[in-house]
Amino acid sequence: MSEEEEVFRIVVDPKDHRDLPRTVITDCPSDLMNKTGSWRTLRPIVDKDKCINCGICWKFCPDVSIHVKEDGAEVDYDFCKGCGICAKECPVDAIEMKKEEDYV
Amino acid sequence: MSEMKIVSGNYASAYGAKLSRAEVVAAYPITPQTEVVEKIASLVAEGEMDAEFIKVESEHSAMAASIAASNAGARAYTATSAHGLALMHELLMWASGARLPIVMTNINRAMGPPWSVWADHHDTLAQKGTGQLQFFCENNQEVLDSVIMAYKICEDEEIMLPAMIVEDAFILSHTKEPVEIYDQELVDDFLPPYDPDYKLDVDQPLGFGSLGMPDWYMDFRYKIFEAMEKVPEKVEEVNKEFEEVFGRDPGGLIEEYKTDGVDVLIVTMGSISSTSKDVIDELREEGHNIGLARLRTFRPFPVEKFRELIKDVNVVGVLDRNYTFGHGGDAAREIKDAIYGYHDPIVKDYIVGLGGRDLTPKILKNIMEDAISLQDKGLDEEIEWVDLKVNQERWRR
Amino acid sequence: MAKIPEKELMRKGTTACPGCGAGHAMRYLLKAVGKDSIINIPACCWAVIPGVYPSRNLEIPLLYTAFETTGASSSGVRAALNAKGVDPREITVVGFAGDGGTADIGLQAFSGCVERGTDTIQVMYDNEAYMNTGIQRSGETPYGAWTTTTPVGSQKEWKKQPKKNMMEIAKAHGIPYAVTVSVGHPELMIEKIKKAKEIPGPKFVHIYAPCPTGWRSDPSNTIELAKLAVDSCVFPLYEIENGEYNIYKKPKEKTPVKEYLKLQGRFRHLPKEEVEKIQKNVDKEWELLLQKEKLMNDEE
């Protein structure tokens, strides 16, 4: 079983009422169902040279979509909604919000 | 050891909850249910009942707490009446949508205004569309039996729906009758601990009750329909098992009292059935071919059973101890609905006993004689209100 | 100050608005209470944020419940756990409701739950209006705010009543512990909620959670607003422990309220006199809080 299949403990992609639990019991991880990256109109771009790995962007992201890696902060563009909090809170101005349409 | 006690319907409810090993009881007092709550509190305080008793601050919270406890895997019990039941309305629907086997006693009491604390079936019947199973009891023994039976029916994985056991205000709730309080071990054999497939569990984090879009909501509702359709068969099955274990028949779907081959069938619900049976006996001695069907399971309505019962009957006289603001009483309506297209007896709806208006054997005999007379004269009125001040003389002579 | 725990108990892919303060609120709350917790969520933004069936967003069990019932639902869960012999310090029962679900429609259940001494953390994530139904005013909407039911208009119908004080209401029940926290100070927030978790009985946590959609603020300003609210003393950070007040973060220099108000479109209509009125009121409330803190310390 792949990692994705393993987590479907109750229903695996329900087709009709026979696949449903007796009531609305939810178990499908939201990150497999809802790729919110498609919401963006602005995208955060990290300048890894300026980044000091302080973790403030990771701390303040409401969507758990920016992570601190060894070489600097990395955005999870599958989920980042482009709110701009990371850019605003970065103490060294390493993050800039750019137009999403320039990157698609 | 089982023992005979002289107890009120309220105490019978409390003993039912105790014998069923209810784990969480959340209830708010309301006349005439108060002794249920008080008795449970005292059983817990004396160490005779091992339950968590939440002294909630309203009936709405009582059902909310019961829903949460049941979702967490505990057997939940509550009790209320009239306005308390009405206050719970939103959550009665939630309990069935959430497929939780919560058992509740409702003391049938009239709705105000005017304020009334006396017997009337309106409060229960106003909630018939909430997905609760509804069982109308005739006496205190049946109250105790029904609580235990209801858990057995409701916790069945094919059912998983909440139930209401209803008893008439004061007539049952406060009147003392001999009741057998069964041996706990006997009940434990009959009713195993509550063990749901899924519950709130930190080792298996699930969501219970999230949003369902139009593409799934209806399918969840269909599952409830499927469960409801299985209930009548399950009631009969569990009823039979109960009889085998405890030696008495709580009534199943419909109690048939001398109904074989009758021309006239009287239908009753609740405590008036007892007095009515005596009157049936009297009329049969006078040579009338009359019998009584006591409607015990109102939800789901035992449609198949009724069709069978009514097959060769000429007149059905329905005693509705309720007026639910529609065209007549609820029982008559459900019966007509069930038999439409199958059989065509005369059906007359008698609105009786609202707000605790007493039904004496004399009044009941007048009603039944009226039903008998319809065989010759045909249906005079679809709905007749019995023993109002304006027509008292006619019904009490 | 402790570092923030790294483990996430809230997954990605929520349907929260960009910059949602309630998103922060849940994320930090879960880091504080940990995985051995059961959360009750009534009708509110967070009833929808985990996604629609079959989506699950949290790594702890979630009981969705009717709007009025958070406190009662929490009582039911705790009673079931007690019946099963679970020690309250082993599994935390959390009620997580918005300002409507705690202070308005949920007030009765909150009151009953706390009065009964239920072992639970009752959390109000406060975005100062009924946001999930479209920004209607609540008892927690501050004086002067625009909402869809106080839409200002030519008759100047902004919210005229003051913000309902839930901390005082909780205190009036004799609650062992009540605390205000802000998503702008996550380390403190997590520290205080961890503290609450270990205290037996009922606890109340008031989270300040700015809402860009309802406050008409830039999504990138959510954390700034959460900090400004504290620095301007609009939302002081304090705890009430067994009736004793402790302001656990005092601003070094009080920021003028207008710095906080000007970042929010919902106050845009306010003339200068009204802003001054608000400043005066904030100053008064702050003085009163300082006095309450002093009173308790003097008695020792």
- Mean pLDDT over the residues of chain A: 90
Report the radius of gyration of chain A as a whole number of Å: 18 Å
Strand arrangement, major sheet of chain A: 3-6
Distance between the termini of chain B: 49 Å
Tell me the number of structural domains of chain B. Answer: 2
Using the coordinates above, name the CATH class of the largest domain in chain B.
Alpha Beta
Taken together, the total number of domains of chain A comes to 2
Number of helices of chain A: 4
At the third CATH level, what is the topology name of the largest domain in chain B? Rossmann fold
CATH architecture of the largest domain in chain A: 2-Layer Sandwich
Tell me the helix content of chain B: 40-55%
Label the overall shape of chain B: globular
Order of helices and strands of chain A: HEEHEHEEHE
* Low-pLDDT ranges of chain A: 1-8
Biggest interface, CB < 8 A: B-C, 43 and 45 residues
Structure description:
The complex is a heterotrimer of chains A (104), B (397) and C (300). With 104 residues, chain A is of the alpha+beta class. Chain A folds into two domains: 1-34, no CATH class; 36-104, Alpha-Beta Plaits, CATH 3.30.70.20. Chain A is built from four helices and six strands. A two-stranded antiparallel ribbon of chain A has the order 3-6. A two-stranded antiparallel sheet of chain A has the order 4-5. Chain B is α/β, with parallel strands linked by helices and 397 residues long. Chain B has helices at residues 9-19, 34-45, 59-71, 82-87, 89-97, 122-125, 140-154, 184-190, 214-246, 272-285, 303-310, 330-339, 361-377, 392-396; strands at 3-7, 24-26, 52-54, 76-81, 103-108, 133-136, 163-168, 177-181, 207-208, 254-257, 264-268, 290-295, 297-299, 315-320, 346-351, 383-385. Chain B has a seven-stranded mixed sheet, sandwiched between helices. A six-stranded mixed sheet of chain B has the order 10-12-11-14-15-16, sandwiched between helices. Chain B has a two-stranded antiparallel sheet with strand order 1-8. In chain B, helix 1 (9-19) crosses helix 2, helix 1 (9-19) runs parallel beside helix 7 and helix 3 runs parallel beside helix 5. Chain C has a single domain (21-299), classed as Rossmann fold, CATH 3.40.50. Helices cover 38% and strands 16% of the residues of chain C. Chain C has helices at residues 21-33, 45-48, 70-83, 99-104, 107-115, 166-172, 186-198, 212-215, 222-231, 257-261, 272-299; strands at residues 37-41, 55-56, 62-64, 92-97, 120-126, 177-182, 202-208, 237-241, 244-249. Chain C has an eight-stranded mixed sheet with strand order 3-1-4-5-7-6-8-9, sandwiched between helices. In chain C, strand 6 (177-182), helix 7 (186-198) and strand 7 form a beta-alpha-beta unit. The longest helix of chain C is centred in the last third of the chain and has 28 residues, at 272-299. Chains in contact: A-B, A-C, B-C. At the B-C interface, helix 3, helix 5 and strand 9 of B face strand 1, strand 2, strand 3, helix 3 and helix 5 of C. Strand 1 (25-26) of chain A pairs antiparallel with strand 9 of chain B, so a sheet runs across the interface.
